[in-house]
């Protein structure tokens, strides 16, 4: 069994931004030379998450609209009374309650076993940020 890790690093430019990282993840899996195993993706943040969903422009727009309606930025949140980093971002943390900070995806023959319409996204909920990091950890043979 072999174990390898690598980070994907992105700058975000929107308050809520959905970034497709599928190609970079696929390239990493293919470059490892492993035949089968699993890949775990972990967001290293409390307001950025990993999501598997469909890559379709209007759907991605719908997702952003939905999140903004679900947890409005201007709500009366206790976290915003004295935020530890100066950001009024309680809404970002609350949106994160409905998301995953990690996903595990099996692979065979160096290819991710995703469904036809599935893509992998980094979901920014508290942007813009100069650096968001996703840890890719692969284990396989």
From TrEMBL:
Record-linked InterPro entries: UPF0047_YjbQ-like, YjbQ-like_sf
Question: What single Pfam family name could you report for this chain, choosing any that match?
Answer: YjbQ
Q: What domain of life?
A: Bacteria
Q: Which family does it belong to?
A: Belongs to the UPF0047 family.
Check the record and name the PANTHER family matching this protein.
Answer: UNCHARACTERIZED PROTEIN YJBQ-RELATED (PTHR30615), UPF0047 PROTEIN C4A8.02C (PTHR30615:SF8)
Question: Can you name this protein?
Answer: Secondary thiamine-phosphate synthase enzyme
């Amino acid at each position: 069994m072999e174990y390898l890790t690598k980070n994907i690093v992105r700058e975000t430019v929107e308050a809520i931004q959905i970034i497709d990282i599928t190609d970079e993840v696929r390239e990493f899996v293919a470059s490892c030379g492993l035949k089968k195993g699993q890949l775990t993706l972990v967001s290293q943040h409390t307001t950025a998450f990993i999501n598997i969903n469909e890559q379709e422009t209007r759907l991605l727009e719908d997702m952003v609209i939905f999140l903004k309606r679900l947890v409005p930025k201007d709500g009366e949140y206790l976290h915003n009374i004295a935020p530890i980093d100066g950001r009024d971002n309680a809404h970002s943390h609350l949106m994160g309650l409905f998301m995953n900070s990690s996903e595990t995806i099996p692979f065979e023959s160096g290819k991710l076993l995703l469904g036809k319409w599935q893509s992998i996204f980094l979901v920014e909920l508290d942007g813009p940020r100069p650096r968001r990091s996703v840890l890719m950890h692969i284990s396989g043979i």
